Amino acid sequence: MSLDEQKSDESLLSSYRISNRLAQSKLFVSAEHRQTKKVYRTEIDQDTIGKITQGICDKCEQLFDLLQDLIDNEGKTNMASLELTDDETKLLFNVTLTIVFGRTSREFPMKLELENVELDDITRLESIIHEQAQQIEQLEWSPHDRFDRASKLPSLVKQDFHFRNVSSSELAALSDNDRTMRCPTFKHHQEHQHYSHNSSFSIATSTQTLETSTGTKAIVTTNQGFLPKSKRYQLVRFDVHLSGPINEKDIFLIGLIDEPDTKQWETFQCSTGTWAFNVCNGSVQYPSGDTRPYTCSLKRLERIRHVDILFDTQYHRLAFRIDDYTEDHWAFCLPKQLQINQLYPFIYLHSMNMSVSIAQ
């Protein structure tokens, strides 16, 4: 290959669509060139894993995790790197794993050879046309189109999607098969005594009982995350029900949180792995705690019907919509290494006049 035909490792890696999967105790790796549609494939069985990795890995699952981590992070992590070499008939995956022993480190090189798979000209042409058509369609989409063309999660329709409490101290009141949440309210009784003088100059007393209600904060997540092997744009809609005015101290946050199922929160905090939209004031809140204006606020609307979460599973981008008010930019771009099925929609609510339900 001539010097003019050579590419840098970074650009060569981005030129391929790489697939990495496990099946029947084997690891299957494939790569397709985004422009030429040339396809390379290999399969690795359990017996050859140790030889390929110099004994670092002894199971297909371990090498799968290493490769997937490199693919998700554009070929470079703190402990490993991936470089591609194209020699026309083969595509070489050159993996270097760095292991630290005390004050010294050692590099372990690994090489995977992917063989070129011959496709007929019609198949390659159809693949090129299909991808170009998709790219043109994406360019033509407006923000409204991105929401309107997004697919609802199948579990929403099947009634499998519901809320769950994740805080032992800030429990939500759940109803409608756990598909509606509200803040719990508590009634307080207070007695007030009134003193007055009657005509005989004696003091008369009377007791009046006042009943007041207060609400507590509530935190919930959904029981399921997004689907990594489904449509690119995925949508979750929450219906909002107002029984009175929105107060200045009301809180309504909605967003995504990256946490395992067993995680419990005593109090909500925006931290690493949390991307929130403040529906009351229209701002977004970063994991660092910083905020910026994003869209119109609930307080500027006379009535609100629903709030949508839109997630781009390909580029890990996140957007929000109040009714039909959509901005022309994404609210967040999430780290690529996140596992899509561990991103859960969450709601943090503190309002006596509001309840939220999962829309079908």
Apparent shape:
elongated
* CATH topology group of the largest domain: Jelly Rolls
CATH hierarchy: architecture of the largest domain: Sandwich
CATH class of the largest domain: Mainly Beta
Average pLDDT metric? 78
Question: How many domains, in number, for the residues?
Answer: 2
Order of helices and strands: HEEEHHEEEHHEHEEEEEEEEEEEEEEEE
Q: Supply Rg.
A: 28 Å
Poorly predicted sequence stretches spanning 5 or more consecutive residues: 1-11
Task: Describe the overall structure.
With 360 residues, the chain is mostly beta strands. It has two domains: 3-138, Beta Complex (Dna Repair Protein Xrcc4, Chain: A, domain 1); 141-184 and 216-358, Jelly Rolls, CATH 2.60.120. It contains six helices and 23 strands. Strands 7, 9, 10, 14, 19, 20, 21 and 23 form an eight-stranded mixed sheet that branches. Strands 8-13-22-15-16-17-18 form a seven-stranded antiparallel sheet, with no helix packed on it. Strands 1-2-3-6-5-4 form a six-stranded antiparallel sheet. Strand 16 and strand 17 (283-285) form a beta hairpin. The longest helix is centred in the middle third of the chain and has 20 residues, at 121-140. 26% of the residues are buried. The model is unreliable at 1-11 (pLDDT under 50).
